[in-house]
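Re: the 294-residue chain
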Amino acid sequence: MDARKPALILNPVAGPVWRRWKARRLIEHLKTLYPDLVIHPTVRAGDGERLARTLSSGPLDLILVAGGDGTYHEVINGMRDSSIPLGILPMGTGNSLVRELGLPANPFRAATAIRNGVVRPVYLGQCDQRLFILMVGAGFDAEVVRSVPPGKKKWGMPAYMLAGIEQLFRYGYPTLTFRVDGKELKGTSGIIAKARCYGGPFAIVPQVRLDRPELILCLFKGRGPMTYMKYMLGVITGLHTRMSDVEFHGGTTIEVESPAPLQADGEAIGIGPARLTILPKPMNLVYPLQHRIG
């Protein structure tokens, strides 16, 4: 989309260490698309949210963010209730949101797609006071996210894969209680999805859509390392949707009633209980011109 007053929030150390050289070249490319672009780099955790809150209260007509899903998560929280369009540029590890929007994984091509793109409203989820756009995990996957030290995140997906294998044999697989629009459900882990993509290209809940005001719980009911290895392979292949001990439950309010570890959009956010709802006011995201939602 065209913009007269655009700004870029840039996480220069997002993603695997071998990709970070692209940041300077990306800025040069963006300047050819938006000559009046103002750059706002982040320095530490929380800067994305702080910058987004300040910028979204000003006269801008486009905010771009270059980083990974964690950076997008911060910016979305900073832009709560803003109507300024947000453009997503991939610089992270999994880039799940980029894939969800149908944008190219190459940041230079994604920038061009945004310049030629269209604005569409999407609905965000809210976990207590924290906004999310992709998912909230309760249980095993949140424990995996929590177990990856910040210093190892620079190694990208291999760091999370190794942590996942380690947690297969460390996690206790306790029974967790969920409540979907008042209906009680039990399992050992749950992914409450607002979008399809999870961990990159994997569709954890194929039927959920950003443009619908809904949440869908993917409930894993089995326990133990071998069962969860089956789940991991199932998510990679898409066959988890056919497993008898994996269930899907949709609603507008989902509660995690147990003291389970939680992650939102790939960032650890603490321990349950928690209440998840839909934010009433949609956010404006920039989609590529030819992408069709659903």
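The chain has a mean pLDDT of 91.
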